Amino acid sequence: MRIGIDLGGTKTEGIVLSEQNQSIERIRVPTPQHNGYQAIIENIVELINQLESAVNVTCSIGIGTPGSIVKKTGLLKYSNTVCLNDKPLQADLEQILNRKIQIENDANCFALSEAIDGAAQGYNNVFGVIMGTGVGGGVVINQKILSGPNGMTGEWGHNILHTDGSECYCGQKGCVETYLSGPGLVNKYRLKTGETIDSVETLLELAKSGDSIADKIMEDFYDNFARAISYIVKILDPEIIVLGGGLSNIGQLYTHTARRINNYFSKPVSVTISKNVYGDSSGVRGAAFLGGQK
Ligand SMILES: [Zn+2]
Description:
Layout: E1 2-7, E2 11-17, E3 23-30, H1 37-55, E4 60-65, E5 68-69, E6 76-77, H2 89-97, E7 102-105, H3 106-117, E8 125-131, E9 135-141, E10 144-145, H4 176-180, H5 182-193, H6 200-208, H7 212-236, E11 240-244, H8 252-261, E12 273-275, H9 282-289
Parallel strand pairs: 1-4, 4-7, 8-11, 11-12
Antiparallel strand pairs: 1-2, 2-3, 5-6, 8-9, 9-10
The structure holds zinc ion (ZN).
């Protein structure tokens, strides 16, 4: 059986997947981020011990986390759980647990889960997209996560979409993430009106009720999504693009995009865009599937 751990900034979730890919045990605990790296390590080990005690067998272990491990150094980078950065998370856990484990970026786990038995089941070239608080992505080819030396495969969130765009926390201007994330959209409304709104849902309601500024922001959003996806298609040409994260609930992304993508090609292309099947569980399921990956 396979244990998957989804190590988030506020909560850590663990599941045990049966050989039939059914979740037979599930535990969710807070992530003790403010107590530092060692506390997070102990928390993960305790969670794994509890899950294994519940099913009474030794399992393979996969962990999904924001950020990525640089192959050369084995150190985690770009995690928003900042106390994990520049730490050898995999080596430290392997030493305590006395076995090999697998760690991957959470967007890669999402893509893997959807490729194995979710929306992209049966497809060999899959791009999994997370659009929520941030923007991430992962590539799965023949049910294996595609990885490179920098741990950057599929990380399209900081591709530059408009060189004169607004500033991104990464230091660049006009990144995909400033256009296609929840905070990015909410921020655009504030910049244009001076009014603060609480969520993308509010923005959608305003657009629906005839607020012309909200409507324009959403129209630009669909167009920016199409533009950003056209760059992915030109490099990877995925058979399917699966959307996850909070913004994947915006229905028009699936109905408005195909036509707009063709604005960025000289000849029509066919791009399949689907919503995820497993929602918030894709990350932890994908982490469990890492056990069979390497
Ligand atoms: Zn950026």
